[in-house]
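User: Quick sanity check before I run a bigger batch. Here is a single chain. Can you write out its predicted 3D structure?
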Amino acid sequence: MARTINGSYAEYVNVPASNVVSLKTALPWDELAAIPETYMTAWALLNWGLSTSPGDFLLIRGATSTLGQACIVLGRQAGLKIIATTRPAAKISLLNDLGADQVLIAKREIAWELREIVPAGADHVIELVGNDTLLDSFAATCVRGAVCLAGFLGGMQPIGQFQPLLQIPSGLRFTTFGSAFVFGRPGFELSTIPLQAMVTDIKEARIQNIYHRAYCFEEISEAHRMVGNNEANGKIVVTV
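Assistant: Done. Predicted structure follows.
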């Protein structure tokens, strides 16, 4: 939706049956609408893109995005030690409140700074900034650690003269995950993701919803302005 299929603001839409999941919840529709893209993708990154274990160090680059925030929440719930990055210093407290143990100001190269905190390097990296910082994420990862590239917040510019054998450290596991392209396909069935448990945890305040507010359709220009100016700290929902 909004990538290869038009109609993001349609009242009705056809979707693959494999992407329909039954839920029981008392959450209102606008709050419920903010959950699947963030939390199902975050769960998939931690469990399919990476294989995390309690006590592991996880670096999240681009953590102030809604997906990055959900990765912090689920990572913390899974017992991981979270190091997050943010460009605006004003959002450090937001990431700490979500459960980040350490927050670094985002720069193209932070590997040396991360290794002052974790000398061996992070066990896992969720790379949401993209190609611009990917090589530095490799440098920030421990021996036989793992990096999952799952976003392009910094743009889609290719890495010039990329030589995998020379630039990916030996033994490092490098994966990618594009939820928009694989969710619902064989091996990535949405029914295998514990969405009901996450919705229940949000309803019972065990974890928080990454949700800013809902706008009615007549306010859609303001909704887009909020997104464009990066003023919201959560998902924006438009009701039709």
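DSSP finds ten helices and eight strands in the chain.

User: Great, the batch can go ahead then.
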